[in-house]
Amino acid sequence: MIPVLLILIPLLSGLVTFFLKDEKAAKSWSLLASVITLAVVFSGLFIYNHNNETTFDTEWLPNLGSRFSLALDGMGKMLTLLTAISFPVVFASTYKNSYKQSGSFYGLMLLTQAGLMGVFLASDALLFYFFWELALIPVYFLCSIWGGEKRIAVTFKFFIYTFIGSLLMLAGILFLYFQTADHSFAIKSLYNLHLSAKSQNTVFWLFFIAFAIKMPIFPLHTWQPDTYEQSPTAVTMILSGVMVKMGIFALIRWLIPIFPEAVANFSTVIIIFSIIGMIYASQIAIQQDDIKRLIAYSSIAHIGLMCAAIFAQNKIGLEGVMIQMFNHGINVIGLWIVADVIEQQLGTRKLSELGGLAQKAPTLAILLVVLSLANIALPLTNSFVGEFLMFIGLFQYNIWAAAIAGVSIILAAVYTLNMIQKIFYGNTVSLTDNAVDAKNNVQWILIVLVVVVIVLGVYPQPLINLTKDTVNTFFVNR
Amino acid sequence: MNWLPMLLDATESTAANYFPIGIQIIFAVGFVAFMIALSAWVGPKRKTSDKLESFTSGISTHGDARHPMAIKYFLVAILFVLFDVEVIFFYPYAVNFKSLGWGGFEAVLLFVAFFLVGFFYIIKKGALTWED
Amino acid sequence: MNAIILSALLGVVMMFASVFTENKIAIRNIAIFGLLILLASNLLNIYTPYSFNVDLHNMLRFDSFGLFFNSIAIVSTLLYVILSGSDIVKVGNYPAEYFALIFFVLCGVTILSSYNSLLMLFLGVEIMSIPLYILTGSDKKNLKSNEASLKYFLMGAFSTGIMLMGIALLYGASGNFNLEMIREKTSIAEFGILAPLGLLLIFISLAFKVSAAPFHFWTPDVYDGAPSVFTSFMATIVKTAGFIAFVKLFSLRMADLGPSYAIILPVIIIATLLVGNITAVFQQSVKRMLAYSSIAQAGFMLFALYTSNDLSTEGILLYAAAYSIATIGIFGILIKMKDYTFDGYNGLAKKQPLVAATNTVFLLSLAGIPLTAGFFAKYYMLASALKSNGSALWLVIVAVLFAAVSVYYYFRVIQAMYFKDGDAETTEIDGTFKFVLVVLALLIILIGINPSILLRWYYF
After folding, report:
1. Can you tell me the mean pLDDT for C71-100?
2. Are A29 and A70 in contact (CB under 8 A)?
3. Among A136, A248, A124, CA closest to A186
4. Which of A202, A462, B118, C156 is surrounded by the most beta carbons within 10 Å?
């Protein structure tokens, strides 16, 4: 029952939220709902973690051979946990922001959460596709209604991009369905497929393009910086913290085990593209003046490394990806919170207009520095473990790939430290003269995040244990 | 004269087989042309203005054909055609009256009933009232 | 059989309704009542096959496919009349006659869903089309409406002529009008070019009726020129009926005609998708966009001809229902708008939140987003293609790419309603209208969650 609850709680509470006229009521209600979801995830991980409690399976579309089957396992556990943590964090940290028609805003946010949960839980390909779309539609409305000036065009581009991707995936899913022996969408049947090399090489790309757009991988990334910039920050946090993981998750669960030959054929190409993307995005991040765009490009670089490590196809790299998926979510949400605080207070996101904020907001400065160091994967922060493992994985695959990818770490240090310097140090400018420190709720949340960053940096074993199943089965299958 | 035996032996199909057809076409076209030319040459010719007018069953024409007239006239004309054509169906029925028996009678009654319903409809809608 | 006879009789009843009453509301209610009777009689037909004992000489055959489609068509018409009935009576001076013509169209539709002889196909197409020519021109003082009517009539007459020629050739090849007998008696070797040519001509003529490219040129002008209420009817019930006739004909004959249709149909599908989608992108008027979108949707429905398996049979029924319901809703709202351009919808969400929300559901369904009926409609079409032939994957990929294009123009309406500021002016919107909109939207979502709630009726 646990997986059903994880979808139903956000779904139903989201639908209720639409009818809440009062802003405060909508906020508290959705915060409450997301905290309950978090509690359910914990109970699923630690209390009710037997097989019959974490899986769910029932008839859905008998004519089409699709079942409503969900399973909370391996990587899914970690990502549902990440999703469940992110939403309360987002709601709490933006608690003071006010939105027009807040009922609809929070309702759509919760629907997004339901979609994300479904994506991470589904073990039936058609169901997976359904949730994949369900997670997209509310985000489209969120960005288009509450976003920045150029929101309509930008969000539309985002939507069309991802929609093309998911439709191609649908064509691929359908193709696989008719290849399975028992005509079913179940993930087990898909894993047991023995496709001809020719069809693998074609259908692989249908899936990969869909996932690559979502992640995004160079050169399909062009929607991402614009969308992150124009979306309301609460949505950006979800987009980059959780939604991006949909692509990586799907890559590991729905792509690589099904098309082993195609993966072997194309891994070099994809790793090359990933590395190009990393260097390219880091370069652009250095040039950025807008905090949001800077974080967006840095996110592309990190995702590129994860993609490359997945296609390096060794155990150590994959463990790194697992850890890093979670950690990247935590870190990037923290960075967005700081960006949001600055924008809400000072009304600008331009680095060139900021400076000397550390004198006025010392707590915020300390917290941001820790998060930024995590972003560059300094030892003792959580990212270090993940990135280190991924680089070892990449190194085992090809020494040159690891060497070139390593450049991106240096570049990451350049743009991240540059950001910190421009925001917090130097002399105050007119804009920051009257700045104050972050509000209490934001401070507490950032402190929690920083604690998580450091704890996981020192002791990442829980994450490795959580995702052990996935990593092991991944290599058993091959 | 070696085409004659070939003609009688129809198993072979060559261009020569079409020779009689060619002759016939030439003769037919030639005859028609000859007759037209002959009648034009021999026949009497009287040129009067009456002959250039359109034939209107003996009554002399007046006015322009594109003269505006009451739209109702068209409606009546269309309805006339409609009902007139439907009457045609009675002819085959009359011929087969006996062999169709009562079943045929019922069918014709149904037909007439629809017919009358339509008639009733156009009267009620005022399609036949000439004066407004 | 019930539906055919009763719809013709109800047409006569509606004609006479105008003789006895002038009250427009009463006339509309009579029509709604008539449709309910028609629906009941059609459902009765499913359980008791011969309510009217007529010797049909095997010219019509009532199978579950036809009867189920009749139900879809009648229910759609019913919803359409309840939703837009008050706008139908406003078109001109002859409210009752419009309903009478709609009933006559339904008579043609019911013949098309059950024909078993090419003669009946011809009769059905004609009975369906002729009242439409009149409905198209019913806004008598509007020049565009007149132009549309004439254009539609001329095009329709041509296509009918082509169809007759095709039927004649098929008759020449087989000596029979009966579909099954034709299938038995003709084969390419025996009759040379006659049978395939005959079928090709019928194909062209039906392609005219369903506006598949390159026979689509009349569609935008006619849909645009006709009064919007009747465009709604034309684009939904009539169009899907054309497809049902098409599927019935080609499900029997495809195999005999050799590989040529395996080439012709993909070309026509892609051409239709291309023309419909790409042209719709450039429209400024929502009404005209919908005309092109109906061409684009036809491209998807053509998949049912290409594949002809059990999935495509179910799929075309599902598509007919999903597409009709959504389009009726969108047109119902369009009729209420004072300005038919995209900008006319600006800010509708603020003024009429419920109307905008339901319109969004309809548009999402047409775009084929999951959780709406339109998704499963498209899904069935694509699945049937891949089921019949794995190498149809490339055709499926092309189709999904065009589906992504269609999102562009459907979402422009959503953008206008929700994200742009303006005061969308509407005529008066009453409670019934909103209620029916909600019913339509719920139907779409229910079918979208589980299409078998609709399709299980098919297996009765």
Report:
1. 89
2. no
3. A124
4. C156
So what's the pLDDT on residue C152?
92
Per-residue pLDDT band for C135 (boundaries 50, 70, 90) equals: very high
Say which amino acid occupies C199: L
Asked whether residue C451 is assigned to any structural domain, the reply reads yes
Count of other CB atoms within 10 angstroms of residue A459: 11
Q: Does the distance separating the beta carbons of B125 and C16 come in below 8 Å?
A: no
B–C contact: 3+ Cβ pairs < 8 A: yes
Residue C16 domain-assigned (yes or no): no
Q: ipTM of the assembly? A: 0.87
Helical (H) or strand (E) element with A60: strand A55-61
Q: How many residues does chain C have?
A: 460
C-alpha to C-alpha distance for C118 and C122, rounded to whole angstroms: 6
The per-residue pLDDT for A478 is 46
In the block, residue with structure tokens 């790939």: A401
Identify residues of C whose CB sits under 8 angstroms from chain A CBs.
314, 364, 369-371, 379, 382-383, 386-387, 390, 393, 396-397, 400-401, 403-404, 407-408, 411, 415, 418-420, 450-452, 455
d(CA C404, CA A167): 8
Q: Which of A260-264, A465-469, B123-127, C205-209 has the lowest mean pLDDT?
A: A465-469
DSSP secondary structure code for residue A438 in this structure: P
Residues of B with CB under 8 A from a CB of C: 117, 121, 124-125
| C296 neighbors C378 (Cβ within 8 angstroms) | no
Could you tell me how many residues make up chain B?
Answer: 132
Q: Which residues of A touch C383 (CB under 8 A)?
A: 64, 174, 177-178
Closest by CA to C365, choosing from C270, C441, C301, is C441
Instruction: Report the distance separating Cα A195 and Cα A201, nearest Å.
Output: 10
Q: CB atoms < 10 A from the CB of A252, how many?
A: 22
- Largest Cα–Cα distance in chain C? 68
**Cβ contact C382–A63 (<8 Å):** no
Q: Residue C157 and residue C148: Cα distance in Å, rounded?
A: 14
Q: Which domain holds residue C296?
A: 260-460
Residue-level pLDDT at B1: 47
- Summarize the confidence of residues C139-155 as an average pLDDT: 91
For chain A, 478 residues long, the average pLDDT of each consecutive 10-residue run is 83 86 83 87 80 78 80 83 87 79 86 90 88 88 83 86 90 87 81 82 89 85 84 85 87 85 87 89 87 86 88 84 86 86 80 78 82 83 85 86 85 87 77 70 83 84 79 64
- pLDDT of C339 > 90? The answer is no
Planar angle of CA C415, C419, C423, nearest 5 degrees: 100
Which amino acid makes up residue C364?
A: L
- Which burial class, exposed, middle or buried, applies to A326 when counting CB atoms under 10 A from its CB (0-12, 13-18, 19+)? buried
How many domains does the structure of chain C reveal? Answer: 1
Domains of chain B by residue range: 3-45, 69-124
- Give the 3-state secondary structure of residue A58: strand
Does the residue C125 lie in any domain? no
- Where helices occur in C337-392 by DSSP H, the ranges are 348-351, 353-367, 373-388
Lowest model confidence (mean pLDDT) among A79-88, A367-376, C109-118, C258-267: C258-267
**Model confidence at C186, in pLDDT bands (50, 70, 90)?**
low
| Tokens found for residue C266 | 């993909």
Whether B11 shows a pLDDT value over 80: the answer reads no
Residue C58 lies in a domain: no
Which of A291, A97, A129 lies closest to A210 in space, CA to CA?
Answer: A129
DSSP C322-344: HHHHHHHHHHHHHHHBS--BGGG
Alpha-carbon Rg for chain A, nearest whole angstrom, is 21
pLDDT at C189 (0 to 100): 54
pLDDT of residue C51: 61
Main-chain phi, psi angles of A148, to 5 degrees: -80, -160
For the purposes of burial, counting CB atoms within 10 Å of the CB of C312, is it exposed (0-12), middle (13-18) or buried (19 or more)?
Answer: buried
